[in-house]
Amino acid sequence: MTITQLFNVANLFVLPFWTLMILLPNWQVTRRIMESYLPFVVLAGAYLYLFVSSITPENAQALSNPQLADIARFFTDETAAATGWIHFLVMDLFVGRWIYWEGQKTGIWTFHSLGMCLFAGPLGLLSHIVTYWITKRFFPRSEAEATLIVEKAASSTRT
């Protein structure tokens, strides 16, 4: 498999997980799939392969004491750029999964934060944090009520 093919496969690989979390968050299948760490193992394996492939003695030396110019030079290589991109895919999906589970646990709306996380991970995280603060500040619920909402959603997806 070429670097371009691996890059393309990795991009497509994450889309079903994002689709489930964003469009079908309360579906029991989504919950079951998002409980697994397997997607991260697969992506981390691709990352490891590319990382090892992209490290040369010169790159290792430059990255051991990183300077912006060295990092920019490192990412001009196609393999290094694919490695960095898969790094983003893994970490954004991991953060998205965390946002998803926080929404399931607390009943806080996550659609917008997950969408932002898909395209710009840190902005999705920031969106979720702000949504959480606003919800807790202006729409406080008791823990019992939040638990009831989550349980009701879980039971409705079983039927």
List the helices and strands and how they pair.
Elements: H1 3-23, H2 28-34, H3 38-54, H4 57-64, H5 68-74, H6 78-106, H7 111-119, H8 121-138, H9 143-158
Helix pairs in contact: 1-3, 1-6, 1-7, 3-6, 6-7, 6-8, 7-8
Q: What report would you give on this structure?
A:
It is built from 9 helices and no strands. The chain has helices at residues 3-23, 28-34, 38-54, 57-64, 68-74, 78-106, 111-119, 121-138, 143-158. Helix 1 (3-23) packs antiparallel against helix 3 (38-54) and helix 7 (111-119) runs antiparallel to helix 8. The longest helix has 29 residues, at 78-106. The mean pLDDT is 90.
What labels would you give this structure?
159 residues, mainly alpha, 9 helices
The helix content is over 70%
Question: What characteristic shape results from the CA principal axes?
Answer: elongated
Query: Strand content of the residues, in percent?
Result: under 5%
Low-confidence stretches: none
Summarize the structure.
The chain is built from nine helices and no strands. With 159 residues, the chain is mainly alpha-helical.
